Amino acid sequence: MRRRLAGKSKEDKDRFEKALDLNLNMMPLTPDHHFYFDQSTYARMRIVLLRIARKMVKEGMLDDPEDIMYLEYEQLRRYVANPKSYDGRALIKKAKLDMEKANKITPRPWVGTVTYWGMYVEPYHMLWGYPERFEKDFGRGGVKGIVRGIAASPGVAEGIAHVVQSPAEFDSVKKGEILVCVMTNPAWVVVFSKVAAIVTDAGGVLSHSAITAREFMIPGVVGASNATRSIKTGDRIRVDGSTGVVEIL
């Protein structure tokens, strides 16, 4: 970076340094917020809820302690207050079916009217992978056996693909495999130490997946749209993080 700035004017260098300082100060906010607020808060809530759930299992109100996670707060209060007249099991069954249906939905890449500001100016457009993802529409058509996305972290890696949908599957990922997923967040950092490369459906060059791949110095392709649908666990693939091309071998 310093070498690239060598030929620039003092004004350009000062502007860059100012932007860099701001970036270095702001960047920790996302992982810190995720760890201290999102992960830590919900982890503590989960401990309390599971203790309540185990008592509910003993009382015959739940079949599995994990079922408590499918009840909304007010539903749980009403069920605990009056288990004989409130059908909590029916609510849990419906919630599970709703989640199963939701997991099969592929969200649209854009909701509403596409504007110039939203595509090119909006502060987070590079986080989402726009305008490149929108203009190239990686998810449609293309060559069989080829998945295209945004080049996010340089290098080439070849290995066995492992499609992961949630952190619950981290233990099944083996050393040297290639992680294929929808997107990552700070909770996924632990799995980066095991994988040889990463391919995601969503994101741009400033997404969590892209930045973390560069930090771990592994090839990365992001914003491929259909990677988790085109690639199966066990497939042998080659990831080129410099071109954004993933080959299913």
Report what the structure shows.
With 249 residues, the protein is α/β, with parallel strands linked by helices. The chain has two domains: 30-103, no CATH class; 124-248, Phosphohistidine domain (Glucose Oxidase, domain 1). 43% of the residues lie in helices and 14% in strands. The protein has helices at residues 2-5, 10-26, 29-58, 73-81, 88-103, 116-121, 125-128, 132-136, 189-192, 208-215, 227-230; strands at residues 146-148, 150-153, 156-163, 178-181, 197-200, 220-222, 236-240, 245-248. Strands 1-8-7-3-4-5-6-2 form an eight-stranded mixed β-sheet. Strand 7 and strand 8 form a beta hairpin. The chain is globular, with a radius of gyration of 22 Å. The protein starts with a helix and ends with a strand. The model has no long low-confidence stretch (mean pLDDT 90).
Fold topology:
Elements: H1 2-5, H2 10-26, H3 29-58, H4 73-81, H5 88-103, H6 116-121, H7 125-128, H8 132-136, E1 146-148, E2 150-153, E3 156-163, E4 178-181, H9 189-192, E5 197-200, H10 208-215, E6 220-222, H11 227-230, E7 236-240, E8 245-248
Parallel strand pairs: 3-4, 4-5, 5-6
Antiparallel strand pairs: 1-8, 2-6, 3-7, 7-8
